[in-house]
Amino acid sequence: MKINIFYQTDIPRYLRRTGLFQKACLQALKKFQKEKAEVNIVFVDEKEILRVNKTFLNHHYVTDVISFNHERPPFVCEEPWAFGDVYVCYPVARKNAPSFQHTFLQEMMMYAVHGCLHLAGLDDHTPEERAEMDRQAEKIIKNTLKKPA
Predict the structure, then answer these.
(1) Per-domain residue ranges for the chain?
(2) What does DSSP say about strands 37-44 and 81-89: parallel, antiparallel, or unpaired?
(3) How do the residues of the chain divide into helix, strand and coil, expressed in percent and rounded to 5?
(4) What number does CATH give the domain 2-145?
(5) At 79, phi and psi to the nearest 5?
(6) 137: pLDDT strictly greater than 50
(7) pLDDT digit string (tens) for 56-110?
(8) What does the radius of gyration of the chain's CA atoms come to, in whole angstroms?
(9) pTM above the 0.85 mark?
(10) Which residues of 37-69 are buried (b: 16+ CB within 10 A; e: fewer)?
(11) Please, what's the largest Cα pairwise distance for the chain?
């Protein structure tokens, strides 16, 4: 499994922690790590997340994260296949971080990991499911940010 990170909005250099995002997302997708597949994490602004929402989901509002699973190709290919895409809205992460007592980086990671957990098959349709996803995401982020002893 390969995680590609794209910054399509103005994010300060100190928050462009590609390796951390990749490590956290790989943890969220650990049961698929042996797949010859790629996941794209795309950091966007509010205008782009709104466009994606309108175009693909018929939602006319800004969200924090959107994930799209892609079907496995019906044939064997030597090249990695597109497992899924996760769009993270950086301005929403920046705005929401203080409410959750997260740094901007933690909130961005929360959205990226949340999107990857969706790709892994988890849902958040009920409060219980949402709480479980949040618990898993927080654990992954804590482990990713843990400094070696």
Answers:
(1) 2-145
(2) parallel
(3) 50, 20, 30
(4) 3.40.390.30
(5) -80, 150
(6) yes
(7) 999 999 999 999 998 887 777 777 889 999 999 999 999 999 999 999 999 999 9
(8) 15
(9) yes
(10) bbbbbbbbbeebbbebbeeeeeeeeebbbbbbe
(11) 48
